[in-house]
C-alpha cells in the first residue's frame, strides 16, 4: 500500500515596517488617517517622480534579518513587478526579486504537542529571504454603485519574508507565525497586528513523503493566528481531492471558514525588470569598512544594528528558566502571552514566595481568568495586589482554598485589596485553639461512627472529619491545628 | 538683439542696454510670427511677462540672481512645469497640469530665467523627427532660409527639425529662446540640434537630475541643453548640475566652473576617430565635414588617431530591446485612474484601461509597449533583456578602453545626413527612422558618456550639418571647452532669415550667433 498523503506548508509573510515615513517617499505613515490624506506625488505615481529609499526601512529589514539569523547581502537590488490593478498606480510594484537584502535565515519555534498538551515540541523553519517592497494601496469595492474607491495612504514599506515549505500542519504554521510576531514586536520593526500589519499567505500542497511536492494552492487573507491554524484545512481538502481522483488546481484561495477559490494564478503575466531609478542598495559591515566620503550617519552599518538588538523571545525564555527555576513550558506561556512575562517579573520583585509557587497563580489563575473574559493583561489585578494575596497565604493568614476565593473576589470587586476582602468576608484562618477545640468537640460528638472508625485505624476517615470542621468554619480553620486537635 | 548668445544678452541686461520685459515681448512676438514652425505646444505669455517684470526689478536694483536672470528659455513638453500643462505631445496627457516643477526647470526659475513655453516633440519622446506628436510635426527653421530656398528651389517641401526634442531645437534656432531644455535618450537632443544648427549638449548620465522628466528609458535619459554656443551650454550646465535628493541616480559635480577657458590649447589633446562610424548612408557632405574638422584639429597640433569601438554596431538593436522594455514598464502608469485621459468606456476596470490606453497612445507608443512586454515575458527575459544588457556592458567597455588608451575626445558625425524633407522622412515608419537616425548618438546613452553636437557647416542643400564630440564620464567641462574651440574654427553661418523672418528681424537679414 502506498504511503499516506501529508501536507506541506510554506508561508509568505508581508510585514508592514514600523516607520515614520513610507519606503520610497517622504509622506508620513499614520494608522487610520483619512483616505488619501498621506499621499505624495510619488505615491500617486505622478509622471516624472522617482523613488527615494527610506534608510529607516532598510535598517528595519537588516535588524529583522539579523534576528532571524539571516545572511545580510551587502549589495542588493530593487526590481519592478508589473501587473495592472487599480490600487497599484504605477502599474508595477518595486520589490527585491533578484537579490534581496537578507537570505538564508532560520526561525525556531515551539508548540504544545497534540497528544500530550503539556509536552513542548521544538521545530525550525528555513527563511529563504527577506525582501523590501512597496505596499500597494487599498481598494474598496462599492457593489451597489459599481464603483471602486482607492486609498493610497497604505503605500508603506513592507518586508516580505519567505519561508521554505517545511511545515506539515496548521499548528506548526500558527506557532511559527506567533514566534515571528513576538520577534518583530521585540525588535519594533513591525507592530505585528494580523489585521493588516502582518499579512500571511500560505502555500499548501500534499504529497507522499519521498515524492515530489504536489501542485500548490495559495491561501490568502489569513488574518489571525487562530485562522491560520484552521485555514490549513486546505491540506485536508487537497488530500480528499487527491484520494477521490480529482486534480488540485494551481489557484489562489481566500480563507472564509473554509478555503474558497479566489482567482486563477496569473503566473505568465508577472513581468519583472530591474528598477532603473534606484542604484544597488549597499550596506556596510562596520564603520571600518565605510569608504571615505560616506557619511557614517547616512550609511546602514550592520554592526551598529547588531549592537542594538534587543532581548529576543528565545533568550527571554532561557533567562526566565534560569533565573526563576521554572519549567520551559511556563517560560513559553509567559513570553507568548502579551504582557504576562512583565507581570510575572514585577510580581517576583514584590513577593517573597518561591517562583515555583507563584507561577501557577500567573499561568493558571490569572491567565485562565483573562482568557475566559477575552481580556489582556492590562491590570485587572495589579502584581502588587497579587503579591499581597500570596503573602497572606504564605504567612498562614488564609488557607489556599480561601486564597482562590479571595482572588475571585478581587477580580469581581475591582480595586479592593486582598486584606480588605479577607476582613470583609471573614476569610482569615481561625488560629484560636480554644475556639477550634470547641468546634472539633462538636463534630466529634455528632459523628460517633466516624470517630469509631478512626480509632480502629482508618486514617481516611480523619480527613472527612477535618472536612466537616472546615465546613463549620467556612474553610477558615487552620488545617494543621485541626488535625492536631482531632488526633 | 534676438540673435545674441545667452552670455551677450546677460551682459546687455547688466549694462542696461536691453530690459527683460522688452526682450520677453520681442520673443513672444517672434513666437507668434514663427507659429507655422509648430515649435511650441504651449506658450506661457502672461506668466512669461510676469517673470520678466520681476527680473527687471532685480536688475534695476542691481541684484540679479545670476547670469540667467531675465533670459528667455523654452522647455520640452516632457518636463513637468508647475501649473503649466505638460503633454508629452500625447492625447494621454493633453490636459495634464503637474503640481510641481522638474528639478532642472526649478533651477532655471530660481536663477530668474523667464519661461517662454513648452516645446513640441515626438509623443513621449519616441521618435527622431518630431513628426509623431499629437500636436503635429515641427518644421525646421532652416526650411525658410535663403540658402535652402535658393539651392532646393522655391517649391521645395519643408524639412524636419529632427527629434525628439525638435521643438526645443527649433525654438533656439528660430531665435525665440536663448536656451532650451531637451531630453536625450538615444540622441533626442543632439539629433535636432545638428539638424537645426544649434549647440546640443547631452551631459554625463547622473550629472543632471531627472526628477520631473517624464521618462522614456530611465537608465539612459538625460536632460539636454540646447544653446547657440558652447560657452552658453557651459553656463547652463553649471546651474543645472549636481546631486538632487529626489533623484537617487545623481552624482556630485566634479567642477563648478561656469566659464570655459578663453584660450584652449589643443596641442595636448588626443582626438579619436572611431572607424566604425564610417557608416552606410553617411552623406558625402557630412563625411567631408568630418574630415575637414579632423584636419583642423590636426593642423592646430592635436593628435588625431583612428580608434575602434567594435561593439558599436550592435548598439541600436540592443538599445531597442532595452528601450522598449522600459517603455512598457514606464507607460503602465497611464491607465486613466489617477490622471490623464480616461475613456468613457466603463463596463469594467479592464475595459476602461484598454480603451483609455488605446485612445491615449499613438501607434508608436503602443507598438513599443507591445514589444517591450514581449521582451520581458518570463520565457524571453534571458534571451532578450539580459542579453541586451550584456551587450550594453561590452559597448561601455569599448569606450573605457579607448579613453584609457589616452584618447581625450571622440569626433564623429551627429547624423548621417542633413535634415530630410518631411515627405521623404515619413516614407519610412518610426521604428526604421529611429534605428537609422540614432546610430551615431545612441552609444553615448548606452555608456552614459557626455556628448555634444556642434554646428559645423551648411550642406550642399543649404542645411546645417553638425559633428559630435564625445568625452569621458564627468569630463563635461573639458568636452565643452573642446566644442568651443571647434565652434570658433569652423565658422558656422548664422541663420539667414527669409521672408517672414526678415520682417521681424530687428538687426539685419543675418544675425550674429557667436562672438
Question: Summarize this, please?
Answer:
The complex is a heterodimer of chains A (about 475) and B (about 525). Chain A is an alpha+beta fold and about 475 residues long. Chain A has helices at about 55-65, 170-185, 225-230, 235-245, 300-305, 315-325, 330-335, 340-350, 355-370, 385-395, 400-415, 420-425, 435-445, 450-455, 460-470, 480-485; strands spanning about 5-15, 70, 75, 80, 90-95, 100-110, 120-135, 140, 145-150, 155-165, 200-205, 215-220, 250-255, 260-265, 270-275, 280.
Give the SSE layout.
The complex is a heterodimer of chains A (487) and B (515).
Chain A: E1 6-16, H1 55-67, E2 71-72, E3 75-76, E4 79-82, E5 92-95, E6 102-112, E7 120-134, E8 138-142, E9 147-151, E10 157-163, H2 170-187, E11 198-207, E12 217-222, H3 225-231, H4 234-243, E13 251-256, E14 258-264, E15 271-274, E16 281-282, H5 302-307, H6 313-324, H7 328-336, H8 340-350, H9 355-372, H10 383-394, H11 400-413, H12 418-424, H13 433-446, H14 448-455, H15 459-472, H16 479-486
Parallel strand pairs in A: 12-13
Antiparallel strand pairs in A: 1-10, 1-11, 2-6, 3-16, 4-5, 4-15, 6-7, 7-10, 8-9, 11-12, 13-14
Chain B: H1 6-14, H2 20-33, E1 40-43, H3 45-60, E2 72-76, H4 103-110, E3 114-119, H5 146-152, H6 166-173, E4 179-184, H7 190-196, E5 199-202, E6 222-227, H8 230-240, E7 270-274, H9 284-299, E8 303-307, H10 315-330, H11 349-360, H12 363-376, H13 382-404, E9 409-413, H14 422-425, H15 430-437, H16 442-447, E10 451-458, E11 464-471, H17 476-490, H18 500-504
Parallel strand pairs in B: 2-3, 2-4, 7-8, 7-9
Antiparallel strand pairs in B: 1-3, 4-6, 5-6, 5-10, 9-11, 10-11
Helix pairs in contact in B: 2-3, 6-7, 8-17, 10-12, 10-13
Description:
The complex is a heterodimer of chains A (487) and B (515). Chain A folds into three domains: 6-282, no CATH class; 313-424, no CATH class; 433-486, Orthogonal Bundle (Arc Repressor Mutant, subunit A), CATH 1.10.10. The radius of gyration of chain A is 30 Å and the shape is elongated. Residues 264-268 of chain A have low confidence and may be disordered. In chain A, 37% of the residues lie in helices and 21% in strands. Chain A has helices at 55-67, 170-187, 225-231, 234-243, 302-307, 313-324, 328-336, 340-350, 355-372, 383-394, 400-413, 418-424, 433-446, 448-455, 459-472, 479-486, and strands at residues 6-16, 71-72, 75-76, 79-82, 92-95, 102-112, 120-134, 138-142, 147-151, 157-163, 198-207, 217-222, 251-256, 258-264, 271-274, 281-282. Chain A has 16 helices and 16 strands. Chain B is α/β, with parallel strands linked by helices and 515 residues long. Chain B has an eleven-stranded mixed sheet with strand order 1-3-2-4-6-5-10-11-9-7-8, with helices on both faces. The two termini of chain B are 13 Å apart. Chains A and B meet through β15 of A and α10 and α11 of B. Chain A: Allows the formation of correctly charged Gln-tRNA(Gln) through the transamidation of misacylated Glu-tRNA(Gln) in the mitochondria. The reaction takes place in the presence of glutamine and ATP through an activated gamma-phospho-Glu-tRNA(Gln). Chain A: It comes from Oryzias latipes (Japanese rice fish).
Amino acid at each position: 500500500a502506498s504511503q499516506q498523503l501529508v501536507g506541506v506548508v510554506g508561508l509568505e509573510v508581508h510585514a508592514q515596517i514600523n516607520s515614520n515615513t513610507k519606503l520610497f517617499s517622504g509622506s508620513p505613515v499614520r494608522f487610520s488617517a483619512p483616505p488619501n490624506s498621506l499621499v505624495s506625488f510619488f505615491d500617486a505615481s505622478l509622471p516624472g517622480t522617482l523613488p527615494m529609499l527610506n534608510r529607516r526601512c532598510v535598517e528595519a529589514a537588516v535588524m529583522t534579518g539579523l534576528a532571524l539569523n539571516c545572511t545580510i547581502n551587502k549589495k542588493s537590488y530593487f526590481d519592478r513587478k508589473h501587473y495592472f490593478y487599480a490600487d497599484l498606480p504605477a502599474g508595477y510594484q518595486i520589490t527585491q526579486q533578484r537579490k534581496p537584502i537578507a537570505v538564508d535565515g532560520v526561525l525556531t519555534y515551539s508548540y504544545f504537542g497534540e497528544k500530550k498538551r503539556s509536552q513542548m515540541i521544538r521545530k525550525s523553519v528555513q527563511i529563504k529571504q527577506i525582501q523590501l517592497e512597496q505596499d500597494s494601496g487599498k481598494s474598496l469595492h462599492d457593489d451597489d454603485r459599481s464603483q471602486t474607491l482607492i486609498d493610497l495612504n497604505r503605500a508603506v514599506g513592507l518586508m516580505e519574508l519567505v519561508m521554505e515549505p517545511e511545515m506539515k500542519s496548521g499548528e506548526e504554521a500558527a506557532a511559527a507565525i506567533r514566534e515571528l510576531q513576538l520577534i518583530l514586536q521585540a525588535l519594533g520593526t513591525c507592530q505585528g497586528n494580523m489585521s493588516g500589519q502582518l499579512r500571511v499567505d500560505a502555500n499548501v500542497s500534499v504529497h507522499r513523503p519521498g515524492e515530489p511536492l504536489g501542485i500548490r494552492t495559495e491561501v490568502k487573507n489569513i488574518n489571525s493566528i487562530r485562522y491560520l491554524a484552521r485555514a490549513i484545512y486546505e491540506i485536508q481538502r487537497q488530500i480528499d481531492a487527491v484520494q477521490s481522483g480529482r486534480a488540485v488546481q494551481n489557484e489562489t484561495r481566500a480563507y472564509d471558514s473554509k478555503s474558497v477559490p479566489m482567482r486563477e494564478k496569473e503566473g505568465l503575466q508577472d513581468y519583472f525588470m530591474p528598477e532603473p531609478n534606484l542604484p544597488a542598495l549597499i550596506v556596510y559591515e562596520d564603520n571600518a569598512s565605510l569608504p571615505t566620503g560616506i557619511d557614517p550617519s547616512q550609511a546602514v552599518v550592520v554592526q551598529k544594528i547588531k549592537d542594538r538588538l534587543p532581548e529576543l523571545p528565545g533568550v527571554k525564555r532561557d533567562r526566565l528558566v534560569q533565573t526563576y527555576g521554572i519549567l520551559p513550558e511556563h517560560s513559553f506561556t509567559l513570553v507568548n502571552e502579551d504582557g504576562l512575562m512583565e507581570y510575572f517579573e514585577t510580581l517576583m520583585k514584590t513577593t517573597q514566595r518561591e517562583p515555583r509557587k507563584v507561577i501557577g497563580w500567573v499561568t493558571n489563575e490569572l491567565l485562565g481568568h483573562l482568557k475566559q473574559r477575552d481580556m489582556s493583561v492590562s491590570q485587572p489585578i495589579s502584581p502588587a495586589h497579587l503579591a499581597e494575596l500570596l503573602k497572606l497565604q504564605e504567612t498562614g493568614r488564609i488557607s489556599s482554598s480561601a486564597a482562590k476565593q479571595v482572588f475571585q473576589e478581587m477580580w469581581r470587586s475591582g480595586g479592593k485589596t486582598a486584606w480588605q476582602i479577607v476582613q470583609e468576608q471573614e476569610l482569615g484562618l481561625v488560629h484560636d485553639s480554644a475556639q477550634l477545640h470547641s468546634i472539633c468537640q462538636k463534630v466529634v460528638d455528632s459523628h460517633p461512627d466516624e470517630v469509631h472508625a478512626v480509632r480502629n485505624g482508618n486514617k481516611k476517615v480523619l480527613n472527612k472529619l477535618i472536612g466537616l470542621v472546615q465546613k463549620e468554619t467556612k474553610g477558615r480553620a487552620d488545617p494543621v491545628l485541626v488535625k492536631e486537635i482531632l488526633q | 538683439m534676438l540673435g545674441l548668445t545667452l552670455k551677450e544678452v546677460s551682459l546687455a541686461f547688466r549694462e542696461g542696454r536691453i530690459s527683460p520685459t522688452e526682450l520677453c515681448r520681442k520673443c513672444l512676438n517672434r513666437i507668434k510670427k514663427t507659429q507655422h514652425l509648430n515649435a511650441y505646444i504651449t506658450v506661457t505669455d502672461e506668466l512669461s511677462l510676469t517673470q520678466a517684470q520681476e527680473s527687471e526689478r532685480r536688475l534695476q536694483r542691481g541684484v540679479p540672481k545670476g547670469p540667467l536672470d531675465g533670459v528667455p528659455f523654452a522647455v520640452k513638453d516632457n518636463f513637468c512645469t508647475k501649473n503649466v500643462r505638460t503633454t508629452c505631445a500625447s492625447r494621454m496627457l493633453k490636459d495634464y497640469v503637474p503640481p510641481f516643477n522638474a528639478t532642472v526647470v526649478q533651477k532655471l526659475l530660481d536663477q530668474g530665467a523667464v519661461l517662454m513655453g513648452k516645446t513640441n516633440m515626438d509623443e513621449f519622446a519616441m521618435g527622431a523627427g518630431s513628426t509623431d506628436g499629437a500636436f503635429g510635426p515641427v518644421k525646421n527653421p532652416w526650411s525658410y532660409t535663403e540658402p535652402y530656398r535658393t539651392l532646393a528651389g522655391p517649391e521645395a517641401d519643408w524639412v524636419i527639425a529632427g527629434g525628439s526634442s525638435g521643438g526645443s531645437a527649433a525654438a533656439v534656432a528660430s531665435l525665440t529662446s536663448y536656451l532650451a531644455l531637451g531630453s536625450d535618450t538615444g540622441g533626442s537632443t543632439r539629433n535636432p540640434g545638428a539638424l537645426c544648427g544649434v549647440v546640443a549638449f547631452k551631459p554625463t548620465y547622473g550629472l543632471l537630475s531627472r526628477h520631473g522628466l517624464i521618462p522614456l528609458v530611465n537608465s539612459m535619459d538625460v536632460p539636454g541643453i540646447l544653446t547657440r554656443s558652447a560657452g552658453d551650454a557651459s553656463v547652463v550646465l553649471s546651474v543645472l548640475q549636481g546631486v538632487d535628493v529626489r533623484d537617487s541616480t545623481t552624482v556630485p559635480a566634479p567642477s563648478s566652473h561656469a566659464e570655459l577657458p578663453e584660450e584652449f590649447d589643443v596641442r595636448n589633446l588626443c582626438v579619436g576617430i572611431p572607424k566604425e562610424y564610417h557608416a552606410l548612408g553617411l552623406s558625402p557632405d557630412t563625411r567631408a565635414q568630418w574630415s575637414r574638422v579632423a584636419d583642423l584639429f590636426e593642423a592646430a597640433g592635436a593628435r588625431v588617431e583612428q580608434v575602434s569601438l567594435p561593439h558599436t554596431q550592435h548598439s541600436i538593436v540592443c538599445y531597442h530591446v532595452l528601450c522598449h522594455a522600459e517603455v512598457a514598464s514606464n507607460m503602465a502608469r497611464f491607465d486613466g485612474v489617477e490622471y490623464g485621459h480616461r475613456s468613457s468606456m466603463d463596463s469594467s476596470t479592464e475595459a476602461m484601461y484598454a480603451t483609455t490606453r488605446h485612445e491615449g497612445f499613438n501607434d508608436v507608443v503602443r507598438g513599443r509597449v507591445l514589444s517591450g512586454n514581449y521582451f520581458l515575458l518570463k520565457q524571453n527575459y534571458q534571451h532578450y533583456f539580459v542579453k541586451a544588457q550584456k551587450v550594453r556592458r561590452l559597448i561601455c567597455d569599448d569606450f573605457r578602453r579607448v579613453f584609457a588608451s589616452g584618447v581625450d575626445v571622440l569626433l564623429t558625425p551627429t547624423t548621417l545626413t542633413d535634415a530630410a524633407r518631411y515627405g521623404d522622412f515619413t516614407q519610412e515608419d518610426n521604428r526604421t527612422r529611429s534605428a537609422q537616425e540614432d546610430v551615431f548618438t545612441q552609444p553615448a546613452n548606452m555608456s552614459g558618456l557626455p556628448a555634444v553636437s556642434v554646428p559645423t557647416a551648411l550642406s550642399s542643400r543649404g542645411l546645417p550639418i553638425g559633428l559630435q564630440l564625445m568625452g569621458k564620464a564627468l569630463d563635461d567641462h573639458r568636452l565643452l571647452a573642446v566644442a568651443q574651440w571647434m565652434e570658433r574654427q569652423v565658422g558656422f553661418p548664422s541663420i539667414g532669415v527669409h521672408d517672414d523672418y526678415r520682417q521681424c528681424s530687428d538687426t539685419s537679414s543675418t544675425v550674429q550667433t557667436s562672438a
